[in-house]
Amino acid sequence: MTVKNQAKNTALYALENRRIVAVVPAAGIGSRMQADKPKQYLTIQAKTILEHSLNVLLSHPVNFDQIILAVAPNDPYLSELPFLANPRICVINGGETRADSVLNGLKQIAITENTWVMVHDAARPCLTHADIDKLLAIKDPNGAILAIPAVDTIKRATNQRQIQQTEDRNQIWLAQTPQFFPVDLLRNALQTALQQGLSITDEASAMEFAGFQPHLVTGRTDNIKITRPEDLALAEFYLSKQK
Ligand code: CTP
Ligand code: MG
C-alpha cells in the first residue's frame, strides 16, 4: 500500500455525522504590520480583526462544537474582548510558530474517529459562510483547503534574484484558510513534521509531507490575510460590501 492510499483506506469516517471543531491561531505578533499591537487586535468597524474572524465561525449554522483560540502567553489584549464569555470558546497558549500554535490547539481536542477540525487564521476576517459551506461539502477523506488559482504569471527566481523559469500557472494555487482535516491525521502529521524540523506554514503542507493529497476548493479573493498596513483598508472595504 502506498502512503498516498492511506487516507482512502481509512475512510471510515461517517462524514455526514462528524463532529466539527475549529482552531483559530491568534498568537502571532504581526511584525509585517508594524502596528503598536498584534494585528488581530486592530479595529475595523468598531470590532477587532479577531472578533470579526471568530464571529464568522460562531454565527455559522453548523455549530462548531468548540472553537479553540490560541493566543500568546500573557496576551494583554484578550481580556478586554466580550466573546470570552462564550462557552464554546476555549482559550489556550499558542507556540513559537503558527504550526506550534495550531498543534497546541489540536492537543486540546478529545479525539474520536469522527472528529474534524477547521483551522482558520485570526488574521482573515473577511471569510464568508458560503466558503465554510464549500469546505464542508467536500467528502474527501484527505481533507480540503480553500485556495485561489494564480492569476499573475509566476516566476521562479535564482538566489541572485534573476528569473530561472516561468512556472505553469494553471497548476499554481494560493492557499488560504480555513483548512479542514480529520483531527487525528492532522495532529500526527503536524507533530511529525515539526519533529523533523520542517518549515510548516499551513496545515496542508504537514499533510502533504505525511503523504496525503488534500483537496483544493476554490475560495474568494476577498478572503485576504491581513499582513501589511495597506491590507487594513482593503479588509474594511470588503467587510462593508458583505453587509
Ligand atoms: N500565529 C500564531 N502563532 C504564531 C505565529 C502566528 O497563532 N507563533 C497566527 C497569527 O496570529 C495569524 C496566523 O497565525 O492569525 C497567520 O500568521 P501571520 O499572518 O504570519 O501572522 P503573524 O505571524 O502575526 O505576522 P508576521 O508574520 O508578519 O509577524
Ligand atoms: Mg507569521
Structural class by secondary-structure content: alpha/beta
The number of helical runs is: 7
Number of strands: 11
Tell me the helix content: 25-40%
CATH class placement: Alpha Beta
Mind describing the biggest β-sheet? 7 strands, mixed
Poorly predicted residue ranges? 9-13
Distinct bound molecules: cytidine-5'-triphosphate, magnesium ion
Radius of gyration: 18 Å
Protein model, in words:
Helices cover 26% and strands 22% of the residues. The chain is α/β, with parallel strands linked by helices and 243 residues long. It has a single domain (3-242), classed as Spore Coat Polysaccharide Biosynthesis Protein SpsA, Chain A. Helix 3 (98-106) crosses helix 5 (183-195). The model is unreliable at 9-13 (pLDDT under 50). The strands form three sheets. It has a seven-stranded mixed β-sheet with strand order 5-4-1-6-10-7-11, sandwiched between helices. It has seven helices and eleven strands. Strand 2 and strand 3 (47-48) form a beta hairpin. Bound molecules: cytidine-5'-triphosphate and magnesium ion. Residues 25-32, 38, 40, 70, 94-98, 101, 121-123, 225, 227 line the site of cytidine-5'-triphosphate.
